Amino acid sequence: MTIFAYRAADRRGQSIDGVMEAPDARTVVDRLQRDAYFPITIVPQGGRRRVLGLAWPALGLGRVARRDIQGLTQQLATMLEAGMPLDRALAIQVELAPNARIRSIMTDVLHSVRGGSPLADALAKHHPRPFSRLYVNMVRAGEKGGVLESTLRRLGEFLEESQEFRDAMVSALIYPALLAGVGTAAVIFLLTFVVPRFAAIFGDLEATLPLPTLILLQVSTGLQRYGWLLGLAGLAALVGIRLALSTSAGRLRADRLLLGLPIVGELILKIEVARFTRILGTLLRSGVALIGALAVVTELLTNRALARAVDGLGDGVRRGAGLAQPIADAGVFPPLAVHMVRVGEETGRLEEMLLRVAAAYEAESRKLVKRFIALAEPCVILVMGLVVGFIVVAMLMAILSATDIPI
User: Fold this and answer.
1) What is the CATH number of domain 2-57?
2) Is the pTM of this model over 0.70?
3) Could you tell me what percent of the chain has a pLDDT over 90?
4) The domain 181-407 belongs to what CATH superfamily?
């Protein structure tokens, strides 16, 4: 799919600008004509940019930040709750757009809505990338039920809570990752720049070097000579892993392996269960049918092993078994989630119980991340300290040995 920038004219002769994602320019023309617009220019934006005479791929084109979508949704909900017509609210969104990309998207959506398309169809037809299936299905359910403004409000709250949870996870992992990166860079610097200078000095002295020093010099020499080979092997390994994960079978095996890891597997399971229950509860609260909601959730889960288990829940629901029993039969969901869903079905408050399960597992995920970081930080510091300490001690032993000072 390619992002096309277009200029078209309506029946009154007024020109409009916008962007559209389509496989080719012919599709853009057909869509514009179907919406009663006459194309003037259509230019692909997904090509390559020329920098310093070289063609480079256009990076990040067509992407919209989640925070922009969140802010747009909350503002649109506020204006609709105030009784403002949808087309006028969208026109204001065009004026308040934080960047040109959002402005182009909202302009295109506005013209589609004024042409008679429902808001959900306008979002799904023209811009499937920034607006997910979850977003489109909730908007469609809100339009059918006549409660679009409240649906958008719940959708904005869902996006805000999801963003806060994601930010909390990322913020918690920044320090250990930074610590490991700086420590690794320091060790590489010592082995490639500092140790070789000491090696030249030791060679001039022609002294017998201790075993730790000989090991250190061999490692330093190997890193200098074959560092490029190690880098190439690492790159090849990354490419191989990426290719393996690009296949459905490889991704499924990797996700099953991750779920079986200690601590990490438990964390992934809790995060995915929280995502599953929050999305499903939000969809059900917005009026989406259970089977349709399960289909949407399946596509939004990142772990394919759990997504396959969720995909099989629809068969049990169609047979009339409800949701709790298929979840229990799947064998991957925690017992607490199964019991909470069963209570929700028995009391007729399934969506409320699903959202409570999501809140509980999000809280547990945060605690588990803090516990993991509390364990990882001293481990990283200890490993880096041992490596740097070995380098320093090996150098000191060689210096003391060369000067005949007893240790």
Assistant:
1) 3.10.20
2) no
3) 1
4) Type II secretion system (T2SS), domain F (1.20.81.30)
* Sequence ranges of the domains in the chain: 2-57, 66-161, 181-407
Listed in sequence order, the DSSP H helices in 195-323 are 195-205, 211-245, 248-259, 264-285, 290-300, 304-311, 313-318
> What is the sign, positive or negative, of the torsion defined by CA atoms of 348, 160, 369, 253?
positive
Residue 105's alpha-carbon distances to 18, 28, 77, 108, 156, in angstroms, are 7, 14, 17, 5, 18
Q: What is the pLDDT of residue 236?
A: 92
Q: Which two tokens stand for residue 341?
A: 């869903």
**pLDDT per position as a tens digit, 379-405:** 888 988 898 888 888 888 887 776 654
Beta pairing class for 38-44 and 48-51:
unpaired
State how far the alpha carbon of 18 is from the alpha carbons of 42, 102, 112, 265, in Å: 10, 10, 11, 44
Give the separation between CA 19 and CA 4, rounded to whole angstroms: 5
Q: How far apart are CA 355 and CA 185, in angstroms?
A: 44
pLDDT digits (tens, 9 = 90+) for 89-138: 888 888 888 778 788 888 888 888 888 888 888 887 755 467 877 788 77
Residue located via tokens 């934006």:
45
